[in-house]
Amino acid sequence: MSREKDSIASSDEHNARGIELADRGWLDEALKEFKKAIELDPNSSHAYDNLATVHAEKKQFREALDAYLTSLRLEPDSATGHYNLACFLSAHALDFAIAEYQTAIEFEADYPDAHLNLGLTYADAGRTPEALAELKTAIELEPTDAFPRHELAGLQMEEGDYRAAIAQLKEVTRLEPENFEGWLDLGICYAQKGFYAEAERAYELARALKGDDLLLTYNLAALFAQWGRKADALESLKLAVKLDRAKVLDWLKADPMFDSLEGDAEFEALR
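Above: the chain's sequence. Below: its structure in token form.
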């Protein structure tokens, strides 16, 4: 029993030393101390927790997750343990996912789903150039899959590259003629480029699939307003208001596409 107490006491010393080293930024040395603490006391949940923290700082995400989970297995009722795991996940989940997708691609370079999901994760992380590149790779590997094309188009739309998005969305709707969102997005892109007749045609094809969609009805109204077709714009806008008045009125507050209707009695009555 005395030997066990001595081992635990020694473990605590190494753990304390590891914390000091980590605070100074000496992460490799801190790792050694925490590992020594665990070697002396394999049931030391706080040593595992500290080990996890340093692994996370070193971007060794797999090792960090394993250490956090081990800490919780040893002390499942620890509020601090659960808190620290949550902090790790909220701070590093995207980076962790990126690292794992990259590892999958290292093992299998022509893995389309890995490139697709890596692209989506890059997009979530705000790393747009990398996201675009990975989505394009996914398309090259699976040219008949409409989904990565649609995701690429969505990202291009966010970047304001509507011409590039149009090219992708034309393929999306060719591959999947009943893809409502594909036709809707294609209409939005055409409208943004000033191709009003093409936009109306895309919207009509979308309406044939889902005629009572709020976003479609609103965008039709915006198209007609831009196009100078006031009566059609007001008719579509009235339909949109019937579908969801609060949401439409909120959209109208900051939508310059309806500037041409400013001062019109019918338009002002809707607001």
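The chain is about 80% helix and 0% strand.
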